[in-house]
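Researcher: Next sequence.
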Amino acid sequence: MTSELGYDSTVGDLFVEFVDTWRLPELSQRIDNAKQKLAEEPQATADVARTQGEVLDQIRQYVRATFKQVNVGPSDTSKEFHHLQRILETRQSQCVGNSQLFIVLGTAVGLDARAIDVIFPSAGCLDEHTFHMAPVVRLADGRVRIIDDRGEVNSPPFVFSEHYKRHGASWKLIDRANPLQLHRQVRPLDLNEVRAHVLVSTAASFFDSDRSHIGRPLVETAFELSPDSSYVLLAMARWLEHKDGDVDRAEALLKQALHNDPDRANCCSRYAEHLARRGRFREAQPLFNRAMALLPEAPNTLVSRAMCHYCLEERQSASKDVATALRIEPNHLGALALRAELRNWEGNLEGALVDADFVLARDPDNSSALRARVNVRMHRGEYEAAERDCDALLTVDPGASDGWSSRGICRSQLGRLREAMQDYCKAVELSPSDFQVLANMAYLHLEFREPAKALADCDAALKAKPDYELALFNRGVALAQLGRKAEARESIERSVEAAPETRARADGAIKRFGL
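Model: Next structure:
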């Protein structure tokens, strides 16, 4: 059986050590005797099922006494509690490990032990990104038992079809108030899918390391074993997007995962996060909403949806999601980092700085917190400190166009105009329609006595935002330096129409250039 689960003989040898310790041959003999009795007395089905249940309880006691149940969350990088050899060596396990233990031990004593994928737990015991697995054992009388210590399920024998109805490839609980405390939705797994889960989880431990080349073939093998598993599809999509840069194929796999498993909150949220990373926020929103409907108490999804609202300038909705996430998890770093950015927008600089400092003390590479602290320091005129934070932000996320533009502003304020121009050029390369950066570039070109280049920058900015006051003003100055006085005055007057509070600046320019 360990060989069928994809392990070498070392794992089988480790299991052999348990046979004497756990007296498995005696348990196997009890079931063999019961089955022999059934062959002689067909009416003895209930006795066989009872014996099987007692043997199952004994195995469960052995597992509970021998193995420490551990919680492996999405940030855990070891994933060793999925792999049977590490489970047997460390005596630590969790859901995938437990399922494998029951499959191997159950088969060893003659039980029909399999695994199920748990889509909705019976209680709120799992975090939002957990794919959960549990063992299920079929008894001689046709009833089944589910054993899931982490999911608070140790069911009595029950007739599956009396409690579950078919729901696509899964089975959904008919009565949510079922006194057996069964999982609300389950899906049977074959051995290939169990193997695929182990491979994907092992590969995850290499994802963020310099040994990611070791993890990639594991995910590919998992994909060959179980190409329809949403767990495998999401993992493959992650490698394609973040390691290969193949966002189109990643999106196709995310779509397939959602199609195969529409009631999995993680399928909705992962696809939504992918769309948000690609700037398709309107498409992402309904998927985030669906994920929250499926799993309401999910702080990570709330923060991702809040970021989506924030990028769409729906600041009130973003604040509401952040507040809800912090109610669920008061020190959620993602929520605090986004709250820092929202407080910046509200003008609450002190509050923004408190949140940003709290996050960065625990996660120095948090780009949202760095971005928020940059904005606070720039508002305060602390440009040298803001520049250092920009350097840190661009080390973490060199593709952050706002990091380049903010550093350009800092360097411009510090009088290092040529360096500032280099940063602005990089920002525009990453975000060609950023009208604010284009207007800032125009200002530097004016300082360099390059009015034609300034005019081109202003025209590009105004194409993106026709009423942008700074671009209109700088355009007027560029036209004045080029001797086109009538056009210059018209552009400067238009800047005042867009921002009446700039009247004094406009009058000064009109007088200076004799317009």
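Model: The beta strands are 68-69, 92-93, 112-120, 132-138, 144-148, 153-154, 164-167, 170-173, 185-189. The domain at 209-263 is CATH 1.25.40 (Serine Threonine Protein Phosphatase 5, Tetratricopeptide repeat).
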